[in-house]
Amino acid sequence: MTGRSTPVVVIDLADPGLDHELYWQCLRLRRQVFISALGWNLYERQGVEYDEYDTPAAVHLAAIMDGEVLGCMRMLRTDNRQGGTTYMILDAHLGRIPNLPSGLLDEVIASAYAWEASRLALSPRVPAVGRNALLVDLIRAGMEYAAERGGHTLLGLMNPVFERVFRRAGLKVCRSGPILSQRDGRICVLRMSFSPNPDRHWCAA
C-alpha cells in the first residue's frame, strides 16, 4: 500500500529505543482533542489522556511534520485479552464501557488477522482542507502495519460519513454493525479490508 503524503512513525511501548517525547505528544494531543475540545469524560493526568488499552500490547502511529505530532492513532489486535479487557470496540459492544453504546457489531470479531484502530486524533493546527487526507494517511499506515504482521482487516469506531471519505480514497470499506447515536452524533464500526487474497475480503466490492 502506498500513497501517504504525511510521514507516519510507529511508537511501540515495547521498543527499548522508544522516543518517549513522541509518545507523550500523542497523549497530550488526545487530551486536547477528546477532553478539551469535545468534552469527553475521560481519565487525564499530568496533561495527558490515557486509558486501560494503552499497554505494551498496543502500538501508536504518529503523523509528524517538523517534529510535531499532527495526528495519532492507537492500534490493538482484536484477539487481545488482558485482565478484564479485550479491545475497545468489543468491550463497548458487550456493554462494558458506559460512555459508548452497546451492540456495535453484527458479529464478534476476535482474531489475529483483525486489528482495531482507536483514539484517532488530529491536531487543530491541521487546516480543514487537509484533515481528511491526514486521516486517510493514518488509516493507510495502520493497514500497512497490520498487513506486515499477517493482518487483513482494520476496525474503527467512527461517524458513518467517513465510509464515503475512505471509499473516495480507494480503500475497501463497509459497515460492520448498525449506525447508533451517542452524545456527539451518529457512530458505527467501519471495517477496512486489505488482504491480497480476495477470499479473505469481508467487504463487498
From TrEMBL:
Catalysed reaction(s)?
Answer: a fatty acyl-[ACP] + S-adenosyl-L-methionine = an N-acyl-L-homoserine lactone + S-methyl-5'-thioadenosine + holo-[ACP] + H(+)
Name of protein? Acyl-homoserine-lactone synthase
Which molecular-function annotations from GO does this UniProt entry contain?
A: N-acyl homoserine lactone synthase activity
* Organism, as annotated: Sagittula salina
**Family label:** Belongs to the autoinducer synthase family.
| Any one GO BP annotation for this protein | quorum sensing
Keywords noted in UniProt = Acyltransferase, Autoinducer synthesis, Quorum sensing, S-adenosyl-L-methionine, Transferase
SUPFAM superfamilies with a match to the protein in the record: Acyl-CoA N-acyltransferases (Nat) (SSF55729)
